[in-house]
Amino acid sequence: MLGGVPLHPLLVHAPIGLLLFGTLLILISFKWTSFRLFALITLVAGLFSGAVAFLSGDSAEEYAEANLPSVTEAMIENHEHFALYSLIAFGITVVLLAIGYRAKGKLWITLSFVVALVGAGLLAYAGHLGGQMVYAK
């Protein structure tokens, strides 16, 4: 909390941008292999910032329960679960990409890209659920 306002809405934008950009970098790395390390670093930074954003959600939950009467506990839990699922998917992506970076093979890179796409979908849905809590009436 900063002046009674939760930091969560400010912090979530970094992992969204980094994780989606990292997914794009994996795709680019199919053509230019030099982008694999850049993708890996970007995804690790996205995971770190995602963990910080996830942990900041507790104070945002308290704020929402106190100030947003239309927000239910079920809405908060759905948002939290999908955010966690997306972090898990991107964690798996990082592991697969690291193996692919070391193995120099396309199989691991392809697997990492597929899992990153799943993670991107989960992340988008988590963001959608968060937006519904704030903007839906």
TrEMBL record:
Record keywords, A-Z: Membrane, Transmembrane, Transmembrane helix
InterPro entries linked: DUF2231_TM
Pfam families: DUF2231 (PF09990)
Membrane spanning stretches: 12-30, 37-55, 82-100, 107-127
DUF2231 domain span: 4-136
Name of the protein: DUF2231 domain-containing protein
